[in-house]
Amino acid sequence: MTTTIKQEHFGQTSQGEVVTRYTLTNAQGTEVSILNLGGIIQSLKTVDKNGHFADIVLGCDNVADYENQSAYLGALCGRYANRIREGQLVIDGSHYQLACNNGPNHLHGGDQGYNQRIWSVRAEHDNSEARLTLRYQSRDGEEGYPGNLDIQVTYCLNSQNELTVNYHAVTDKTTVVNLTNHSYFNLKGSGNCLEHELQLFADSFVPTNASAIPFGDIKSVAGTPMDFREPKVIGQDIDADDQQLLQARGYDHSWVVNQGDSLLKPSPLKQCAVVIEPETGRRMTVKTTQPGVQFYTGNFLDGLSGKEGNRYNKRDGFCLETQHFPDSPNQADFPSTELKPGEVYNHTTVFAFGLSS
Question: What residue intervals traverse the membrane (predicted)?
Fold first, then answer.
């Protein structure tokens, strides 16, 4: 068996747009299903230590359920993933007001972000990998952002059980860009995620205020519940008496990915996280070129309609959203998220699946 791609009708949006599901399968039987709606990873099936396959991402069985939830299940987020304080941008001296769709702040692209858009798709495969290339043009002024932004996101599943996501964008006017995928993982396949063991290759994190906007400083994880430098069960400290956790109802913060030794690691890809689910033996390793990873424990899932009649509740899944830091356009000391004409936005994240030893 070689890699294959299957295409099938998934439904229609409330606006009558056709939604198609593309299922990429490799020789090992690992398969990922992706929608042209929002570039959503609708299903991801991997094997456990007993040879059984299970779907390890949260999602929906129909378009209506995706349209009726605001959890961004499996979706591409942009133009700016995460939050921008009060929806305010200043670029080249010009002020731009974005929608405030998350309390006082702008979140994941606004009222109609990329998660709700229909993307054009090109599918191709050979013996070793299957690729799905999604394209979308975000118009100048869409959701308040300046510049026509041409975006290309490629999902690639190879024979080594690696799912690579590459983000590419160019603009005709200076703008800000921060793209990510918002998949919720549960390596057990069901139940909560609190017994998963997580290691984050990050010595520091970004503290935030009560509305999840950074104060502007970077803080060491040492001596805090944010310390995942050694593998730790997600649930160990999640209910600690810590202001950062209390205001977020759990983990929902950006960790600063360690840069490593560039002489020893010439690749810009940096190991970001390793997750192990002890009961099934499933392991997921994440590498990225991005400076940060937002670790979120599904703190606001509340009876969300899921697949096969399931309801997703608080902490039933976790996200590892590789991206820039929240509110970077308003934080002078954070890495810049501006993209100028003639420049290329190019980032890669790799999710590798296997079994713990």
Answer: none
